Amino acid sequence: MNNRHTLLRWLVAALIGTSAALSHAETIRVAIGTQDTTINCATGGLMIRELHLLDKYLPHTGRYKDVHYDVQWKDFTSGAPLTNEMVAGKLDFGAMADFPGSLNGAAFQKAGKRSIFISVLSGSIDGSGNGIVVPLNSPIRSIADLKGKTISVPFASTSHGMLLRAIKAQGWDPDTDVNIVTQAPEVAGSALRANKIDAHADFVPFADLFPYRGFARKIYDGSQSHAPTFHGALVDAAYAEKYPEIVVAYLRATIEANRLMTEDPEKYSLLIQKVAGIEAPVDYLYHGPLGIQTRDLTWKPEYRQALATAIDTLKLLKKTDVKLDANTFIDDRYIREAFKESGLDYDAALKNYAKSPLIANDAVTGKPIRDFNDVAQVWLANEAQVRNYANPAEAFAALDKLEQGGTKARAVFVHDHGSGLKLFANQAWYVKDAHGTVVAFLLRSGADTYARHVSGKVLDYAVVSGASAEAIAAR
C-alpha cells in the first residue's frame, strides 16, 4: 500500500511539474505577411503556407527545445498595408517588390526601428514582369503611341518606376507629355474593359494576366527598360537579431518551395490557381522553364542596384525623405546560412544567371530541344504536363490535329525570337519566311524589322496557327 501511495505521489508531482514547465514554455510568434496574387512571391509565402514547409525547419533544440510556435499568416493585395502592419508590430516577415520594400524600410526608420531585406524571391535583371497593356481593340501598338494619352499605374509601385523610366527613354516629360493617374490593378481591369483609360502599367502578374483573360494586349515589357526588378522577403531587424534561427528556418522553407516549383511547375501553378485565383497558365508563364522571371534567391549586384534605384526614385516622387542605405538595408547573412544548412553553394548560385532550364524532348521527333529562343509549348486541358515543341509551326500543326479530335488547349506558349521572352502565343506577332520557318515576337515593330531582313511576312496568331477567332478565344 505504501508503495502504491508513493507511486501515486510521484505521478502527481510529475504531472504538476510538467504542467508548470509547459506553462512557462516560451511562445514565439512567427507572423508572415504574404501577397498571394503577386505570384512571384509564391515560394516565400503561399507555397510555404499551403505545403506546411515551415514546420519542417523551425528549430526545436537548444534554446528552442520547449518553445511553442504561434505561426500566423495574413494575405495582402499590395505592399503598403503589409508594411503598415509590420511597422505596427503585427507581422514579423513580409514579401514585396523593390519599390514598396523601400517604403517598408523608410517607414520602419521613421518609426525609430529597422527592417531588413533578407532574400530575393523572384526577379529579372532586365525588368521583365512589369509591363504596359492597352485595351484589346486599341490601335496603340507600342509605347511610342502613348504621347498625350492617359496611363494608369499603382503609384509608388515597381511598375510606376518602370513607367517613368520608359517615358524618360522616349524623351518625354511625365508631367506634360502623358497623363499619369493612380489606379490599383483591380480597378484598372474594369477600366480597360470599358475603354476608360488608354493604357495601364502594372507589376506581376497583371501585365500578363489581363491579356490572358482576353481584354487587354501587352505593348511594352519591362525588359525593354533593362532596369532590374525583384520581389523579396523582409523581416523586422529586431526580430531577426532575437531569433536568427527562425529567420534561417523561413528561408530554408523558401529554398524547398523553390525546388518543388522547379521540379513540377505545372502542379504548383495549379496550386497557385486554386488558392490565389490566378490562372495556372499565367503562373506557369513565370514559374515554368525559361519563365518570365527567375526564382533567384541570391543578392546579385543587379538586385542591389534595383533597390538603390527604388530608394532614389521614391525620393524624386517625394514619397519619402528618409535616408535609406541599400547596403545596410540588405542583409545576406541569413540566406547564406540557409543555403549552407540546405547543402547548397550560395556563391555558385550568386554567379548563376540562367533561367529555370528547359530539359525536354520535342513532342513530335523525340529529339532533345536545343534552340530555346524559338521553342513552343502546349498545355492541354486534360494533361498534367506541358508538351514541348522545337518551334511554333510544329506546335501549331500538332495543336490543330489535337483540337480536331476534340482536345482543348489550356494555353500555348512561344518565345520572342530576339530576347527569348516567354509569351502567350495568341498575344504574339509572327514572321514566316520563304522556307516556311515561323518565329514569334512580342512587338509588331520587332516582327516588321525581322520580316524585312528575311523577306518574310508578318502574321498574327489567327493566320499563322490556322485557328478561328472562336478557337483562340476558347484557349
What topology emerges from the helices and strands here?
Blueprint: H1 2-24, E1 27-34, H2 46-50, H3 54-57, E2 68-75, H4 79-87, E3 93-97, H5 98-110, E4 115-124, E5 131-135, E6 150-153, H6 158-169, E7 179-182, H7 185-193, E8 199-202, H8 206-212, E9 216-221, E10 229-236, H9 237-242, H10 244-263, H11 265-276, H12 280-287, H13 301-316, H14 326-329, H15 333-341, H16 346-351, E11 376-380, E12 387-389, H17 392-404, E13 409-415, E14 422-424, E15 429-432, E16 438-441, H18 444-454, E17 457-459, H19 461-465, H20 469-474
Parallel strand pairs: 1-2, 1-3, 6-7, 6-8
Antiparallel strand pairs: 3-10, 4-10, 5-8, 5-9, 11-12, 11-13, 13-14, 15-16, 15-17
Helix pairs in contact: 4-5, 5-13, 10-11, 10-15, 11-12
Overview of this protein structure:
α4 packs parallel to α5, α5 packs across α13 and α10 crosses α11. The relative contact order is 0.11. The chain is of the alpha+beta class and 475 residues long. The protein is globular and about 75 Å long. The longest helix has 23 residues. 42% of the residues lie in helices and 19% in strands. InterPro entries: Solute-binding_3/MltF_N, SsuA/THI5. Belongs to the bacterial solute-binding protein SsuA/TauA family.
